[in-house]
Specification:
Elements: H1 2-23, H2 28-31, H3 34-41, E1 51-53, E2 56-63, E3 66-74, H4 78-86, E4 92-94, E5 101-105, E6 109-114, E7 117-124, H5 130-143
Antiparallel strand pairs: 1-2, 2-3, 3-7, 4-5, 5-6, 6-7
Length: about 140
């Protein structure tokens, strides 16, 4: 008699866990790997671990004073993403040739949206070539 009740509780718990994880944005360290970051940094950074703060997840690769920080969060619509991206102060331009809805902000930040996920890639201590930024956008968009 108890087995159906136990099974029902386990199934309900699995659904609840699945729903909670579905609400989280993807792992930023999986979207931009250590190998991807090493291309931008021109050196091999230590392996990074994702951190979750509120509704965002962050992953930072660092070598000396240079770093690449990847942040993921859920953004429901492309329109909401575009509005946020265009509100950034400075020079914000669409990243053409990437096959993704992406912007470059001031040459030091990439903003990307795909399938309800917003990804920000921020470069500190250096400004990578446009070709490196475009390659990162293509890599991330392909994993979302």
């Amino acid at each position: 008699m108890r087995w159906p009740l136990v099974t029902s509780v386990i199934c309900a718990a699995a659904v609840a866990v699945g729903s909670a994880s579905a609400a989280q944005p993807p792992d930023p360290c999986a979207l931009v790997t250590t190998v991807d970051a090493s291309t931008a940094l021109n050196a091999n950074p230590p392996t990074a671990k994702p951190k979750t703060v509120g509704a965002t997840r962050t992953c930072t690769y660092k070598i000396g004073k240079k770093s690449v920080t990847v942040t993921t969060q859920k953004i429901a619509t492309k329109a909401a993403f575009d509005k946020t991206a265009k509100a950034i102060k400075g020079v914000v331009v669409p990243m053409l040739g990437t096959g993704a809805d992406a912007y470059s902000a001031n040459g030091t930040t990439i903003l990307l949206w795909n399938k309800g996920t917003g990804v920000t890639i921020a470069f500190a201590g250096f400004q990578p070539f446009v070709s490196v930024q475009q390659a990162l956008v293509k890599t991330v968009a392909g994993k979302l």
